[in-house]
Amino acid sequence: MHVIRHISPAITWVGGSDRRLSRFENLFPIPHGVSYNSYLISDQKTALLDTADASILQRFLENVSAALDGRPLDYLILNHMEPDHCAGIVALLERFPNLQLVGNAKTLTLFSQFYDLPLDGRTITVQDGQTLSLGSHTLQFFFTPMVHWPEVMMTYEQSEKVLFSADTFGSFGALGGTLFADEVDFARDWLPDYRRYYANIVGKYGVQVQNALKKLAAVDIQTICPLHGLVWRKDLNVLLEKYDLWSRYQPEEKAVAIFYGSMYGDTENAADLLACALADAGVHNLAVYDLSEIHVSEAISEIFRCSHIVLAAPTYNNGIYPPMLTLLHDMKALNVQNRTVALIENGSWAPTCAKNMRALVDELKNMSVLEQTVTIRSAVKDATRTDLLALAQAIAQSVQG
Ligand code: FEO
């Protein structure tokens, strides 16, 4: 049975959620699931904005049929040609013989790479800024390349002022009946998933996101309909301000996140000691993470939130303990910038971890590394404790300064 929700009398959400998939892109754990959003506009012509993932294909097709209510589908707008939004294209082409695919030149190239179906006479190739009339509704296409694929575009419906934003403004998390951001406690229940989705899926492309935000700045947007997560029709600035911060690689909060790797508990001991000393010094926006226990995407998400990060790890194979090395590689891949970093290393006979971590941090833009690097020789002793207390003072001063 179909499950749809109306955004307006003419615009219907026809997407669905997957709560069984354990890893998005077979990579990122999604304990709260994920939604694949699709939207139908019914006017003199009908237009569907993107399709959905194969996992929800049957329900998606039921939803489209219900929303069409017996009418044919005239246009399928392809804002994004990644497979989590494309699984319904072929089925819809077969079901509606007069259906035309609407995309840009890159969209259609990607279509031919993923599918063998000939499209002769069934495509409309649009240019940046071009419009397409559906009757009283008019679609305008804005190209937003590399947010986060090259073909990505957003579609703006002029009469209702709705932006169909592709992955931008999307999130991990299945929908639970509540489709609109004003129907949920966003800060409590959704913000961490929004941040982790942004940081890990789009985070590398901050410049391109800034370009997209600038391009759309003059557009009167009343509603945002992304391909994942919630629909926004109120308080759009809550999300726009987060996107502005994230895409400029600016921290959301004056906060310290301590990430440690620890083989036998001694580096963990140092992390805990430092955290307690920071709390004693009045730094209470604090979080401590064992990198062997959390997924690297969670660490990246916290780095996008926090102004200060502490990296603590043992020397391993004369280098960096693997979970910390993975985090540093991801920080580089995702363009992390503008953070203050403190380093703690452990090494029983030849500690090299801090030097190697420093070298990788130095590859990032505008990172400030505190000079008080702490070296642990196997386990924390009185002298190391003194060094850690001094490091806590330096971090507290930096946070509070
Ligand atoms: Fe949700 Fe980039 O696909």
UniProtKB/TrEMBL annotation:
<feature type="domain" description="Flavodoxin-like">
    <location>
        <begin position="256"/>
        <end position="396"/>
    </location>
</feature>
<keyword id="KW-0249">Electron transport</keyword>
<dbReference type="GO" id="GO:0010181">
    <property type="term" value="F:FMN binding"/>
</dbReference>
<keyword id="KW-0813">Transport</keyword>
<dbReference type="InterPro" id="IPR016440">
    <property type="entry name" value="Rubredoxin-O_OxRdtase"/>
</dbReference>
<dbReference type="GO" id="GO:0009055">
    <property type="term" value="F:electron transfer activity"/>
</dbReference>
<dbReference type="InterPro" id="IPR051285">
    <property type="entry name" value="NADH_oxidoreductase_modular"/>
</dbReference>
<dbReference type="InterPro" id="IPR036866">
    <property type="entry name" value="RibonucZ/Hydroxyglut_hydro"/>
</dbReference>
<dbReference type="InterPro" id="IPR045761">
    <property type="entry name" value="ODP_dom"/>
</dbReference>
<comment type="similarity">
    <text>In the N-terminal section; belongs to the zinc metallo-hydrolase group 3 family.</text>
</comment>
<dbReference type="Pfam" id="PF00258">
    <property type="entry name" value="Flavodoxin_1"/>
</dbReference>
<dbReference type="GO" id="GO:0016651">
    <property type="term" value="F:oxidoreductase activity, acting on NAD(P)H"/>
</dbReference>
<dbReference type="GO" id="GO:0046872">
    <property type="term" value="F:metal ion binding"/>
</dbReference>
<dbReference type="InterPro" id="IPR001279">
    <property type="entry name" value="Metallo-B-lactamas"/>
</dbReference>
<dbReference type="Pfam" id="PF19583">
    <property type="entry name" value="ODP"/>
</dbReference>
<dbReference type="InterPro" id="IPR001226">
    <property type="entry name" value="Flavodoxin_CS"/>
</dbReference>
<dbReference type="InterPro" id="IPR008254">
    <property type="entry name" value="Flavodoxin/NO_synth"/>
</dbReference>
<protein>
    <recommendedName>
        <fullName>Flavodoxin-like domain-containing protein</fullName>
    </recommendedName>
</protein>
<dbReference type="InterPro" id="IPR029039">
    <property type="entry name" value="Flavoprotein-like_sf"/>
</dbReference>
